Amino acid sequence: MADDLNQRGQQDRSRINMNEPWEVKYWTRELGVSQEELARAVQQAGNSVTAVREQLKR
Description:
Blueprint: H1 21-31, H2 35-45, H3 49-57
Helix pairs in contact: 2-3
């Protein structure tokens, strides 16, 4: 997601930025995982939301 909260769109939702607390909070809720699980999935699969979703299915 972009740092500018007024700029929203598909590009904003395609990556997970673990350095933005509000974004981590959003993605933990959206994906139904803990912060630790999200961090582990991002570390293993990269920051693409699609790749993280696939990683969490495993």
